[in-house]
Amino acid sequence: MTPLASGGHAFDLAVIIAYLIGITWFGTRFKESQKSLKDYFLGGRNAPWWAIGFSIVSAETSTLTVIGTPALAFAGNYGFLQVVMGYLAGRIVISRLFLPQYFRGELFTAYELMERRFGLRVRKFTAGTFLLLRALAEGVRVFAVSIVISIVLGTGEVASIVVIVCLTLVYTFEGGMTAVIWTDVVQMFLYIAGALVSFFVILGQIPGGWHHVAEVAGPLGKLRIFDFRFSFTHAFFLRSYSFWAGVIGGCFLTTASHGTEQLLVQRLLSAKSQKDSRRALFASWFVVFFQFSLFLVIGTMLFVQFRERGLTAPKVPERIYPEFLWNNLPPGVTGLAMAAILAAAMSNLSAALNALASTTVMDFRGVRKAATERPESYYLRLARLATVAWGIVLFLIGLSARHWGSVLEAGLSIASVLYGALLGVFLLGVLTKKPGEWAAIAGMCAGLLVTFLVRTQIAYTWYVLVGSGTTFTVGWLAGFVWPQRAMGREA
User: Fold this and answer.
1) What pTM, to 2 d.p., does this model score?
2) Is residue 416 part of a domain?
3) For residue range 287-323, what is the model confidence (pLDDT) as tens digits?
4) Distances from the Cα of 94 to the Cα of 87, 105, 289, 292, angstroms
5) What is the domain count for the chain?
6) Residue 379 belongs to a domain
7) Which of 110, 223, 313, 373 has the smallest number of Cβ neighbours within 10 A?
8) Which residues constitute the domain of residue 15?
């Protein structure tokens, strides 16, 4: 008997359905404010910095965080926080290197900066890399939410993916970036609230509370954060969550994701000023650190619960948290917690749809050059059609992602393979002057090839460092063969 058919969660289902209808309705209310591409892709640059900060958190973390992070702590310890510490270092690099570049002129996408520095070919190469990266990574996230919906509704994976993609597509299609930012704010508060409620409920179910959790988990090494072991051996580079892999890898990963990927750069570009963009960027880290810590602690408490009760963990680790919520929390609280997980999924999916559409329209259609040839309404309609097209693509990739293993690490590793080349060419553009267009392309190709070849030999936390280092080095050397042209660039 499915959870829906059993009738044991009628109130919870009502809460979840009310959320899905409410957030979709809320997002569509921003339709009337969408008059131009600036409105649709940058929210008119009217959102306050704190809302953009929350939106960055929502885009940075998703259902993968909510269901994948507790699974990491359940099976291991708190070593993942070492990666989160690297996220702060990455934000410092972005604020110093990239933000000043992005706020010189009015940019719609990160890849316009590459055309300004190298030429149109590099703009399209970097934009195409982003489209591939985000489509694959978002497909994993779409599948992740199907795990939750299938638990709640008892539906199959295909039907579950259809539900979440269609509802998110409705308000993203109508409200553009404005809807994305403000629904992100609502959804972020909801899933943090849901996590806090589940934290206190689970803790209350453990005799002895946190003291007992620490007594059980501490001696088993479940509360350990840092791993300072260092050696230039093959085994060292296979450890995903050592201090060095975490801080260095996390720094490079964040610099790539927040500094070169349109999904997050789009939010930075939506700020009223560079100062507001910087505020949003750093404020988001404190929220990210808090929420990762919270979900890791929840994973530890679930470990103690399962151990004390003699329960068997599900075969799919990411089902541990949502299944426990659905089967053990009081009515109403369960609905809130599950709606919170769906909120994380929808906020990230809406962001991806808008970012994919903006890159497709702005970087591949030459909109800004041809804007005088057709009315603004034509390009706005084109942007909405691109949003629908990407919704279909993500649905199809989500179906394929069912066989890709651990959803959290699959999502991060897929992104990391491509992030290195993106970050390397951006650093090449910002830090050097000699390399030209073909040198940058040669560097990116080398970075992608090397990262792909070594991906099975090192932990995913090192992918971006390897890829960006290779891209920058090869691109710089190739600059002696293909230097930047003094006058003009090839189109």
Assistant:
1) 0.83
2) no
3) 999 999 999 999 999 999 888 888 887 777 778 888 8
4) 11, 18, 18, 22
5) 1
6) yes
7) 373
8) 3-405
